[in-house]
Fold:
Amino acid sequence: KGTQSFGTRRNKTHSLCIRCGRTSYHNAKKVCSSCGFPAAKTRRFDGWSRKQARKRGQGTGRMRSLKNVPRRAKNGFRAGTTPKPKITKNIKK
Structure:
């Protein structure tokens, strides 16, 4: 149960998951313990693990589309038009 037993631990139970990329895919069970692959629905950690829910929620990835929304909302979601020219005051010396 002690030091001698640890020397026999040489088979890997988990390998890389092709969906989440973590070393959580159980080789014998063929199920990822992190994301639940191959199930269609991604595994969720709603009530019992707040930190895991924070780690994989909205805003943790690249946000390819969502990161542009505040800037577009500021201009009223205009599309296909040229922006109005900025009015500059010419100060004469």
